[in-house]
Write a sequence for this structure.
């Protein structure tokens, strides 16, 4: 089983550039989310979705957009990249939209903004 | 506001000794509690969770965690550490009555098992 697939694994951007981080899951999970991981900060929730067509903000949503047109895909868009967005990004999904089930994580995208 | 704290940035344990990774939380109402582990260059993996019932929860790879409501703690434990247990460990919490579906993670504790 593929589980949660994130692409790309690595990306370097210049300030002001835009890009989309892709996330797909093949487990028919309702809940999907994006986290960023920074040293000493742990994981912080950016955006999440409890089903197709439904998205909401997490702790640190500024500078990021998401959409959920299908159950499988949950892309994260950076419209104008800033150095403060240099981080490792993880997508996660869960079969339980109430959060009682375990999260399945992708392998991460390491993003550097110069 | 809900929060979770991992007071130790790093824990060093000799192989074969028992290990404890600490976690305390602050939520309104009853919590759902989780532990995750992250190996180098990998995503997080689920270890165990507490929803209700027995305060001692057993999980993957021989780990267990004890829920203590009076101390608002959920410490991760293992009776005998292995070098392969060296990794970054995250505690996470979600309030029972939270309808926002958000799971909050601690900052992580790096566990070093010394041969």
């Amino acid at each position: 089983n593929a589980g949660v697939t994130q692409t790309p694994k690595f990306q370097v951007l210049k300030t002001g550039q835009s890009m989309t981080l892709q996330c797909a899951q093949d487990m028919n999970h309702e809940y999907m989310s994006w986290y960023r991981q920074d040293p000493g900060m742990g994981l912080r929730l950016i955006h999440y979705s409890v089903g197709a067509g439904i998205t909401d903000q997490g702790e640190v949503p500024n500078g990021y957009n998401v959409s959920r047109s299908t159950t499988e895909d949950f892309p994260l868009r950076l419209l104008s990249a800033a150095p403060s967005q240099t981080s490792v990004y993880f997508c996660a999904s869960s079969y339980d939209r109430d959060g009682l089930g375990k999260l399945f994580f992708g392998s991460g995208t390491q993003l550097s903004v110069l | 506001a809900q929060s979770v704290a991992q007071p130790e940035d790093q824990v060093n344990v000799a192989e074969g000794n028992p290990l404890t990774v600490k976690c305390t939380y602050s939520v309104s109402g009853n919590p759902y509690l989780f532990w995750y582990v992250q190996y180098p260059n990998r995503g997080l993996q689920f270890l165990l969770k507490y929803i209700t019932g027995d305060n001692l929860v057993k999980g993957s790879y021989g780990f267990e965690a004890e829920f203590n409501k009076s101390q608002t703690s959920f410490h991760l434990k293992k009776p005998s550490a292995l070098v392969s247990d060296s990794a970054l460990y995250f505690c996470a919490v979600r309030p029972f009555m939270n309808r926002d579906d958000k799971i909050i993670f601690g900052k992580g504790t790096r566990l070093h098992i010394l041969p």
Chain B touches chain A through 25 residues (CB under 8 Å). The longest strand of chain B covers residues 87-95.
